[in-house]
């Protein structure tokens, strides 16, 4: 299992320059076909761990997807999260604010969609639009949007501490040439023409401004508790993620902790530890055992770029691209 966390997670306090990022990075997988076995393995792991989180009903997961137009956000939701049970997972797409939204603070429309305990929510675009679009197009003064980074961090800290919500934030990066190629492919495909409009081309005039805005987001809002993952990818190998790394460390109380080796048995039994003791339980007892689990120090989801890095090679044009900012 490949582990790209050190390469892709933005370290808190670090300054990010996207001109030094390679949008063609694809890890060890050159194609969807070569990545499929690992993708399927991670899908199964996602499904199993979503079930455990739902049964325990103590934690929730928020996945935030941000990126430039045609960056692959919809594809991640459509292709990757098929491993999730839809009864416990919802995708929310934040579009242009309504008049009612604008009559409140910018986080007012976001908070109702934060996942409940046991559930997963995917934000396809998110509260970060208010330090991206709002900044680039001058929708609010700088003295307003410049304060929002801290307000976003406070908001994420709130739902992390008050609702045990693990937040994973992904920036999906492409080059300017690759974006144009994807726009053309949408125009040429009658089934996908609805996804392209004149305004998409108009926004390209602000490319450098958006890159600068994203750099500030990456620098100012990647925190220890809510890290931001910066992911670039090869034109024909689009990102696909995510796998849970279940991390239930024993916290010193009289509870059980699911170990990292829980599912090495292939799902036939689960190892549950209480302090230094271990015991085997069958799948029927698995959910019941969760009731005995002490709250973990942290529910950790980790990015596996081997699964992030492929799904629709045949859909992507072979374009030589480089970051142009």
Describe the structure.
- This protein has 325 residues and is α/β, with parallel strands linked by helices.
- It has helices at residues 5-8, 32-56, 73-80, 99-102, 133-136, 142-145, 148-163, 176-188, 198-203, 207-221, 283-290, 305-308, and strands at residues 9-10, 60-67, 89-93, 120-124, 165-173, 228-232, 243-244, 257-258, 270-274, 277-281, 301-302.
- The protein has two domains: 5-245 and 301-313, P-loop containing nucleotide triphosphate hydrolases (Rossmann fold, 3-Layer(aba) Sandwich); 248-297, no CATH class.
- The strands form three sheets. Strands 1-6-5-2-4-3 form a six-stranded mixed beta sheet, with helices on both faces. A three-stranded antiparallel beta sheet has the order 8-9-10.
- β9 (270-274) and β10 form a beta hairpin.
- α2 crosses α11.
- The chain is globular and about 45 Å long.
- The two termini are 33 Å apart.
- Residues 233-325 have low confidence and may be disordered.
How is the secondary structure organized here?
Layout: H1 5-8, E1 9-10, H2 32-56, E2 60-67, H3 73-80, E3 89-93, H4 99-102, E4 120-124, H5 133-136, H6 142-145, H7 148-163, E5 165-173, H8 176-188, H9 198-203, H10 207-221, E6 228-232, E7 243-244, E8 257-258, E9 270-274, E10 277-281, H11 283-290, E11 301-302, H12 305-308
Parallel strand pairs: 2-4, 2-5, 3-4, 5-6
Antiparallel strand pairs: 1-6, 7-11, 8-9, 9-10
Helix pairs in contact: 2-11
């Amino acid at each position: 299992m490949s582990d790209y966390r050190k390469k892709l997670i933005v370290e808190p306090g670090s300054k990010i320059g996207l001109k030094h990022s390679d949008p063609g990075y694809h890890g060890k997988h050159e194609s969807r076909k070569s990545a499929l076995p690992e993708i399927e393995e991670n899908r199964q792991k996602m499904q199993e761990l979503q079930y455990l989180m739902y049964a325990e009903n103590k934690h929730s997961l928020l996945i935030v997807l941000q990126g430039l137009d045609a960056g692959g956000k919809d594809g991640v939701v459509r292709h990757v999260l098929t491993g999730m049970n839809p009864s416990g997972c919802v995708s929310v797409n934040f579009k242009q604010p309504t008049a009612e939204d604008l009559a409140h603070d910018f986080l007012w429309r976001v908070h109702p969609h934060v996942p409940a305990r046991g559930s997963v929510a995917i934000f396809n675009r998110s509260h970060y639009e208010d330090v991206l679009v709002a900044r680039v197009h001058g929708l609010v003064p700088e003295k307003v949007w410049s304060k929002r980074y801290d307000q976003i961090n406070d908001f994420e800290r709130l739902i992390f501490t008050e609702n045990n919500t693990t937040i994973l934030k992904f920036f999906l990066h492409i080059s300017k040439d690759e974006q144009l190629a994807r726009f053309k492919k949408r125009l040429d495909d009658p089934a996908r023409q609805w996804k392209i409009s004149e305004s998409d081309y108009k926004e390209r005039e602000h490319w450098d401004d958006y890159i600068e805005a994203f750099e500030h987001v990456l620098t100012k809002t990647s925190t220890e508790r809510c890290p931001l993952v910066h992911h670039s990818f090869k034109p024909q190998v689009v990102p696909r993620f995510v796998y849970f790394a279940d991390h239930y460390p024993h916290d010193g109380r009289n509870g059980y902790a699911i170990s990292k080796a829980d599912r090495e048995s292939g799902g036939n039994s689960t190892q549950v530890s209480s302090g230094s003791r271990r015991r085997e339980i069958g799948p029927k007892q698995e959910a019941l055992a969760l009731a005995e689990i002490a709250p973990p120090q942290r529910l950790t989801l980790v990015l596996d770029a081997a699964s992030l890095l492929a799904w629709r090679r045949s859909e992507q044009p072979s374009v030589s691209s480089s970051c142009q900012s």
